[in-house]
Structure formats: C-alpha cells, structure tokens
Amino acid sequence: MTDWNKNQLTERLGLRYPIIQAPMAGAATPEMAAAVTRAGAMGSLGVSLQSNDATRAGCNSIRSKTNGSYNINYFVHNEATLDPEKTERTRDYLATYYEELGLGPVPAAKVSSTPFNEKNLAIMLELKPPVLSFHFGLPKNELFSAIQNAGIFTISTATNVLEAQQLEDSGIDAIIAQGFEAGGHRGTFTEPYEDGWIGTMALIPQIVDAVSVPVIAAGGITDGRGIAASIALGASAVQLGTAFLSCPEAAIPDVHRAALKNARSDKTRLTSAFSGRPARGLENRYIREMAGREDEFPDFPILNTLTAPLRKASANAGHSDFIPLWAGQGVGLIKTMPAGKIVETLVTETEIAIKRFS
Predict the structure, then answer these.
(1) CA-based, 20 to 30 A from 248: which of 30, 37, 65, 268?
(2) How far is 297 from 243, CA to CA, in rounded Å?
C-alpha cells in the first residue's frame, strides 16, 4: 500500500488522492467542490434540486476556480405519480405541525423535481463535466448512451452486489459501494430494499470481487483510518460526505451545524419522512413522530413539497425539530475546517494509518 494514492481511477481522472467529496444536493456548493479539487481530490455538486441555469452557473464557477476533475450528480429515480389518497393522508399528518409553527394550511402536493431527462442531458453535453454521476440507478438507455458517446466518465451507486453487476452490465465506468452507514439518501434501486442493508466493510470486497470496474467506497468513512481500510479491501477510491458537512463552504443551516458538533453515531436514523425515500440523519422530533408511516408517504420527491415549509420555518427559528439533519454513522469523527484543509488532513491521517502496517 505504499502507492495508496495511485491507481487506474486516479490516473484516469487526474487525481493526486483517491478521495471524492460526495455531491450532497442542497449542502455541497461550487465553492466546496472547487476547494476539494484544488487540494488534489475530486469535488462534486448535486444538481437535481436546482434549475439548469443554476447548474450552468455552478459548473462555470467550479471551472473558474480550478482546472481539475469535478463531478456533477443527478438523481435518476422513477417518475413520481400523484396519489390523492396518500397525499391527503400525509397533509393531515403534517397539519398539526403547520399549526404549531403558524404556517397556515399545508400546501397542495406537486412533483417538485424530475429524474435526469433530455433537458439535463442537453446541458451536460454542452458543459461536458469531467465526471457525471447518478443516484438511484441509471438514466434511460438513450440518455445514458448519449453520455457515453460524449466521452464523459460515469459513476453510479450500488448498495449490494446485484446492483453493482447491473451497473457494470450497463457500461458504467466506476461504481460507488454505498454501505448502510452512509448519511443522506440511500442509492438502492432494486427490490427488496432491505437487500441494501449491508455495512461498508462487508460490502466493499464483495463488490470488488464481483465487478471489473473501479469501486469507490462510501458510508461511515470520515477519517484516514477508514480510507486506509477501504483501500486495503480493494477500493480504488473513497467518497466522503458527512466529513465535509461542517466545513464553511457547506450550505447547511446553522442549526444543522450546531447539531453536528455534539453528534453521536448511535443517534442517526433512516427515515423516509422528509422526501419519501430512505435517508440517514440525526434523530429529531419529526423523525420519531413520523416513524412507522413510511408506506403511507407520497412518492419521492413529492413529499418534499409538503415538508419544505416545515424545514424552512424550523431552520429560521433555530431549532432542529423539523429539518433533515443528514449525517452518516461516522459523524462523531468529523472536524470543522475548510474543505481543502479536510482533504489535507485526510491524506495525512491515511498515510499514518498505512505506516502502522508497513
């Protein structure tokens, strides 16, 4: 492991270090991505929750600050369908919280964002980011083929071996092995969902053995020891999200930052109550009180339109009852420092961990 930072993936992407900052839609920023890339790793930007104009501005901002590789990420969930019965039931559940916060009536549900589509493809072919990654599977065949034909490097997430094999069969260039410890939305795209409940350290070597493309480890990795362990298990790189949430470049509310400072890994929970898809965050009142109702929520991302006012009001009031405090199970190890400094620290920690076995 003397050359832990050099492999086929780092050579292909021009990275000094096999470290990727997770896209984290809504939390990652162009400033974060650029800082990580300048430090020799790869920054990422999740763009599914914003307009194409904002995506163009974000890509241009990153390019103006660095000429290294960066990653643009899209959700590729199934098209959402409005279910009046589920929608009205959820609106009834939320009405009490709206009344408590003085927000008035719960708004009507709508489809707030779409999976990767022709318009997104057009802007990606125009901007041609070095890397394009996906969450919840892959885009439609014709869209994915156009990306491949453009020579853009592609990545997607797998939470079990079957998903990894399906991604490889579809022609993906690299696969993120997302362990159960990961914060934010789970990337699972096959049924049953529970087949993706596999820990990172168990998942990495199984996917490495099952596919021939580079594997990127993710989930609960927040320091150099986790990076060294992932590389030892066969990963070509690691992706970290929670480790970057406390950096000044992150676009999270102050109440989220405050919650991360004293967070413990045993206080994270999976919930579908914010968006309609399972995601891991720090437990709060809303997660506790909505537990057990997962099958009653409208499709992702429709639920976002119903919970968004609650999130905003909770953040503005400075309390954490109704906002998603996304974090993985490695949250107790995070450090508060600029994104570029986090990369430097991770590299130093990894080299120290590796030397213990030299």
Answers:
(1) 268
(2) 30
- 339-355 vs 30-38: helix crossing angle, rounded to 10: 40
Q: Which of 36-50, 288-302, 342-356 has the weakest average pLDDT?
A: 288-302
User: What digits encode the pLDDT tens for the residues 279-294?
Assistant: 999 999 999 999 999 8
Provide mean pLDDT across the span 107-124: 92
- Rounded distance, CA 119 to CA 146, Å? 13
Residue 231 · residue 18 · CB < 8 Å:
yes
Instruction: Specify the pLDDT at position 2.
Output: 59
- Tell me the average pLDDT across 20-41: 98
Query: If phi over 0 gives left and psi between -120 and 50 gives alpha, with beta otherwise, what is residue 220?
Result: left
- Region for 147 from its dihedrals, namely left if φ exceeds 0, alpha if ψ lies in -120 to 50, beta otherwise: alpha
Coil vs helix vs strand at 281: strand
CB 340 within 8 A of CB 36: yes
What does the alpha-carbon distance between residue 42 and residue 34 come to, in Å, rounded to a whole number?
8
Read out DSSP for 222-276?
-SHHHHHHHHHTT-SEEEESGGGTTSTT----HHHHHHHHT--GGGEEEE-TTTS
Query: In degrees rounded to 5, what are phi and psi of residue 288?
Result: -65, -45
Q: Are 79 and 141 in contact (CB under 8 A)?
A: no
Pairwise CA distance, residues 170 & 317, whole Å: 46
Helices (H), the chain: 8-13, 30-38, 52-65, 84-100, 118-127, 141-149, 161-169, 200-210, 224-232, 254-261, 285-290, 302-317, 339-355
Is the CB of residue 331 less than 8 Å from the CB of residue 338?
Answer: no
* Contact (Cβ atoms closer than 8 angstroms) between residue 133 and residue 23: yes
295 pLDDT more than 90: no
pTM of the model: 0.96
Residue 113 tokens read as: 């964002």
In angstroms, the CA 31 to CA 19 distance is: 17
Q: What is the pLDDT of residues 227-251, one digit of tens each?
A: 999 999 999 999 999 999 999 999 9
